[in-house]
Structures are given as structure tokens and as C-alpha cells.
Here is the input.
Amino acid sequence: MKRRTVTAGSLEEILQATAPAQASEQTAATPAAAPPRREDHRLRTEFEFELPRGYVDEAGTVHRHGSMRLATARDELRPQIDLRVKENPAYLSVVLLSQVITRIGSITDVHAGVVERMYATDVAFLQDFYRRVNSEGHTRAAVTCPHCEGGFEVDLSGGRLGES
Here is the structure.
């Protein structure tokens, strides 16, 4: 790295050359600019989703929109000691999903019984959504158009496929 040496007549000249401009001179010389955009670097811990079919409650109401939080180590360990999982290892995903889904429509008490009564397509969607959120940190998926074979990304948490 090259170094440059700059000399000035006196300390006063150096201070004047490097001093910030007065506030009144700045506002008169340049128009007011928008404040610099600050990026939000906080960890996103909750993700919205829309179920392909929707959960139908006892009253017949269809609930499609929901949210899922990031899983903790405890969430992943707890199903291992659940008796239902010990009897049937396939039940692990039901227990795990019931712990991390925070809301489906107006239902905030999401338990294993709710997940059990979901359509298989919705459970498969939620399993994939869980994997994406917890291992990849986002809800985007790379897809290829079957007609033009062009590649692009879709956000799985958004609306139904084909809707904008």
C-alpha cells in the first residue's frame, strides 16, 4: 500500500480543510436527502404460510393462513420421548409440527390432534415448509417452468401457486 504525505502551511489550515461544514452551509448548498436506508438484520423467527387445502375445524370453517416459528433443540428432542412416537416413529412429524405451528387461521391452540385432522397434502406442505425454514432459513424454492424450462424462485409462504 502506498502512502502519501501531504504538507500544509500550519495546523490551522489542516483543521479548516478537514473540519465538517457548518449545518447552515450544508443545508443551503445541498437539498435535504432522504436518510440512508438501514437494513434490518434481526433474526426472523416466525414465518407466515398458506395451506394448499386448509384445515377444516369442527364447525366446518376452513383455515388456510397460519404461522410457524423456528424450531429449538428442545422442540426436536421432545418428540423422541413421546410415547406415541415410540410406538409409531411416523408420528414424529405430527408432534413436531404441533409444537412449532403457532396459528392456523383463528386457531392458536395447535396440538397434535389438529395436525392429525389435516389433509395429507397440507401435512406434506408443512413438513417441507418446516425443513426449508429450519435448515435453509428462508421459504423460497427454485422451480422450472414446464413449458419454457426457465428457472425462477417462488416464495412458498405466499399465496397459492399461480396467484400474484
